Amino acid sequence: MAASEGPLAGVKVLDLSRILAGPTCTQLLGDLGASVLKVENPRTGGDDTRQWGPPFVKDGAQDTDLSAYFMSANRNKRSIPVDIASADGQATLRRLAGMADILIENFKPGGLEKHGLGWESVHALNPRLVYCSISGYGQTGPNRDRPGYDLVAQAFGGIMSLTGPVEGPPMKVGVGIADVMCGMYATVGILAALRHAEATGEGQRIDLALVDSQVAWTINEGVATRLTGEAPQRRGNEHPSIVPYALYPTADGHVVVAVGNDAQFRRFCGAIGLSGAPDDPRFATNPARLENRDALTPLVEGAMSRLATDAAMAAIDAAGVTVGPVQTMPQVFASEQARARGLCLDMEADGATLPLIGNPLHLSRTPVTYRHPPPRFGADADRLERDDPFEE
Fold it and tell me: What are the structural domains of the chain?
C-alpha cells in the first residue's frame, strides 16, 4: 500500500446512515482511505440534511442539494440511489453487503430486518462483516423503539442540565455534539471490530446508542454525580473543579483563562495586579479557591476589566498561564493557525469551490486524503453496474 492511499485503503464501507452521527463516522473512515458507498433513498431525494439550509452551494442562481450541513459530514463518499423498500433495491444491498468490510446503519431497531438486511441475515451472507447499528436508545432497554435526535439525546443524557447561564434554562450545545461524539465512538468501535475480523475472519455487530454515548462523555460531572448522588450545579462558563477557569471581561471584550494549579495562580495574579491574593488563605490552594469562589471571582473580574484585551492576553501569556481570545467563526477560519493546520479545506466539484473543514488528524506515514468532494444525490449511480462498485 502506498503511503498516500491512507491506512484504510482497500476497506469497503456500505453506508446506510443519514443525518450526522453515522455520516460523521463514515466521512472519517473515508478520510483515512476507505472506499465509502453512501446509499440514499431515491423516493425522498436522499439524506435529509441535503435540505437542511440555507446556506446551500448554488448552481448559477439556483440552490443545489449541497447544504453546508450535508457537506460537513459527507466528503470522500460516492452517492448511489437505492430504494430499500423494493425487491431490486434489497437485492442490490445484499450484493453490496456481501462485498463490504463494514456496514453502518441508523434505522430504528428492527427497521432493516423487514427488508432482509438485519444483522442475522447479513452476517449469514458475509460472516466477516463489521455491522454497526446506531439508534437513539440502543437495541435494548425500555426506550428501544423511541426515535432519537441530537437535541433529545442532549436533554435525556443530562448535558443540557449542565449547560447555559447559572440562572437561565437548560441549554443545548451550539452544534450537534451528541451526534458527532456518537460518530467518533462508532469509528473507534468499528476499527476495533475490523482488526478482530481481519485477524479471525469473524465479524460482529456494534450496538451504539446516541444517548449512551452522550452519557459517557459527561466525564467528570457524570462520575461526580455517581459518587455523590447529587445533581451538578450549572456554572455557565466556570469549571466545577478549578478556579479561576472561566470567561472574564476585559476593558474592551472578553478572554478565557485556565489556571490549572497553585503556581499558575500565583503567576496569574501577578500578571493582572492581584499579587497579594495567593497569600490569602481563602485563595492559597485550589480547594480553598473552590470553597471561596464567590469571594475570588469579583476580585479577578475587577482586575481583568481594567485591562485591554491585548494587554491582558500578553501579560497572562508571558506569565505562562493559558489564556485565549473568544473568536467568532469567521475569525477562526481567518486565523493563521487554522490555515497552518489545514482546517480551511477547499474542494473542487463541477467548477465550484466547496469550502469545508479539514480533518484534524495528522498521521506522519499515512496522512488523511481528500479524494472525493461531497456528492450530489445519485451522482455515482453508474457504479452499480460495475463488478466492484467500491473500486476507487
Answer: 3-217+339-385 (3.40.50.10540), 245-327 (3.30.1540.10)
Mind telling me the catalytic residues?
179
Helix, strand, coil % in the chain, rounded to nearest 5: 40, 20, 45
**pLDDT tens, residue by residue, 231-267:** 999 999 999 999 999 999 999 999 999 999 999 999 9
* Residue spans of alpha helices (H) in the chain: 21-31, 68-71, 87-99, 119-125, 150-156, 159-162, 177-200, 210-216, 219-228, 262-272, 286-291, 293-305, 309-318, 329-334, 336-340
Using a cut of 0.90, tell me whether the model's pTM lies above it: yes
Q: For residue 372, give the amino acid letter.
A: H
Do 312 and 256 touch, CB atoms closer than 8 A? no
Neighbours of 195 (CB within 10 A): 11
Q: Which residues pair with 208 in a beta bridge?
A: 134
Residue 342's region, left for phi above 0, alpha for psi from -120 to 50, else beta, is left
